Amino acid sequence: MKEKTLFIAVSTQKGGIGKTALTVLLSSYLHYSQGYNVAVIDCDYPQYSINGMRLRDKQAVTEDSYYKSLFYKQSKSLNKRAYPIEVSRAPEAIETAKKIIRESEIPLDFIFFDLPGTMNAKGVLSTLAQMDYIFTPITADRMVLESSLEYAGLINEQIITTGKGNIKGLHLLWNLVDARENNHLYDVYEQVIAELGLQIMKSYLPDTKRFRHEITTEHKPIFRSTLLPADKRLIKGSNLDEVADEFLKIVKGGGNG
Questions:
Q1: 257 within a domain of the structure (yes/no)
Q2: pTM flag (> 0.70)
């Protein structure tokens, strides 16, 4: 019996803390480096950032001989296509996912949803309720953290504890962690998070410029792309591999990792 395709949202209501970037990083790492089959549904109307990145990536591998060669070598060695990215408004996102699953030539392990950052947008709450797992990036900025905890608490109260959806778990993830910040501050925040009954991942992502390394005319090592995997030299020390490992333990283990 084939395993069910898991619906995953990297979701928060606060902009600028890496929701879309983390969706791309995880999708590409799992699909191109870890052997999983992934699809992405970009629901973040009107900017559709992930779809925009795919269009830029496609242009680069079509017009730039350096990236064309990289993409060709990768496609040959992996013997698999780039993961599909579909654009959809939030209310239609689940139907779009079902269509992708029906039309896919291979069984899909994960479909990642990039949803609008506001719960008030039409269809967001009902779509979130259909996720198997939600991952919410948080930072140690007090205003960002309060907003993120309020968001996670609302999902927990309205969907998870009431059993009105499919969500098996919501996990917070420290993002943009500054090595110079006081560890005691994180301990205090984690105590508050535990008191709220929310779960937080043990792994975290540091604040590093490498996460912004996209395809450019300078041909520097790439970290974030929808068509190419993160450069192995840049993965070292990025914690992306650790976050992905813990992510897999959570979603494949059907529990808390």
A1: no
A2: yes
Closest-CA residue to 129 (of 101, 161, 164): 164
- Give me the long-range contacts of 97-106 (CB less than 8 A, separation at least 24): 97/5, 97/7, 97/39, 97/41, 100/39, 100/41, 101/5, 104/37, 104/39, 106/37, 106/80
| Distance separating alpha carbons of residues 103 and 113, to the nearest angstrom | 18
Residue 104 in any domain: the answer is yes
Is 155 domain-assigned?
A: yes
Instruction: Report how many domains make up the chain.
Output: 1
- pLDDT > 60? residue 230: yes
Q: Is residue 1 part of a domain?
A: no
**Cis omega (within 30 of 0) for bond into 46:** yes
Q: Two tokens at 240? A: 């992306």
Tell me: pLDDT of 48 over 80: yes
Q: How confident is the model at residue 257 (pLDDT cuts 50, 70, 90)?
A: very low
Report the pLDDT averaged over residues 206-218.
80
What pairs with residue 112 in β-bridges?
8, 40
What CATH code is carried by the domain that includes residue 188? 3.40.50.300
Residue 29: predicted pLDDT: 96
Range of the domain at 188: 6-252
